[in-house]
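Sharing in case it's useful to others searching the archive later.

Someone asked me privately for the predicted structure of Type II secretion system (T2SS), protein M, so I'm posting the question and my answer publicly. Question first, with the sequence:
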Amino acid sequence: MTRWFNSLTMRERVLLVGLVPLAVMFGLFQFAWVPLQQTRAAHLTDIAAYRLVSSAAARLQADPAPIAVPAPTDPIATRVTQSAESAGLQLRRLEPDGTGLRVTLDEVPFQSIMLWMSDMEANFAVRVAAIELDRRPAPGAISARLLLEDMQ
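And my answer, the predicted structure tokens:
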């Protein structure tokens, strides 16, 4: 190795001595630091979701009495659309189904849809009669098909 290094010109030696540490630092950053930070961010997201769900469960245990919701005057489609907009969800499809409404959502965060359903029940007098959830490739994302009905 020394013989090979000594056979290089001075310019080649300087370039080699300068580039090897940079290449090692880049490799450590790209293949060690970046994956660790991505894993850390994913775990922090999981912790935040857990805290959100556990605080919601604690609130339900503290006050299990149902809240009386006044009789709605708007059609169910209007109330569902308003509640989805306030929750930041984009509805893909709305279909009337007798007195109810079938709703389809794509690629939504699980915790967002759970909070949206509880908000509809508490504030818009809409309850979930049936639900079908499908896991999506993105972490925490789902597709949902809901059958919603008035709470009368």
